[in-house]
Specification:
Layout: E1 27-34, E2 40-47, H1 49-66, H2 72-108
Antiparallel strand pairs: 1-2
Helix pairs in contact: 1-2
């Protein structure tokens, strides 16, 4: 995981977060096709299989910590927000928004 690693490839200076979003995805496929107005469209497909493994690891670790809660309500209050933070952090933000933004920045440059 990039947050617990000292590998230089996990970090970048290209975005404000400082994390390389491409380490969280399994693959990227780019296709070029003609658009309706005669311009070329670039279609980007992101394979997020690795991202789901990160979220599963996040869920297992937070679920294990939340199991120490004495009641199910406290378990839900601990596990739910932590799991959602992992889901939106990894899947939505890092493997979604930042990957698409960096590819779009490179295509427009």
């Amino acid at each position: 995981m990039a947050l617990l690693s000292f590998q230089r490839i996990s970090y970048t200076h290209k975005n404000w977060v400082g994390l390389n979003p491409f380490t969280f995805v399994s693959g990227i496929r780019v296709r070029c096709q003609p658009g309706r107005d005669g311009r070329t469209e670039a279609v980007v497909e992101v394979n997020r299989s690795r991202t789901f493994l990160y979220v599963a690891l996040w869920g297992v670790s937070t679920g294990g910590a939340a199991l120490a809660a004495p009641t199910f309500g406290e378990f839900a209050l601990l596990f739910g927000p932590l799991f959602l933070a992992g889901w939106f952090g990894y899947v939505s933000f890092l493997a979604g928004y930042l990957v698409k933004k960096e590819i779009a920045d490179c295509l427009h440059a």
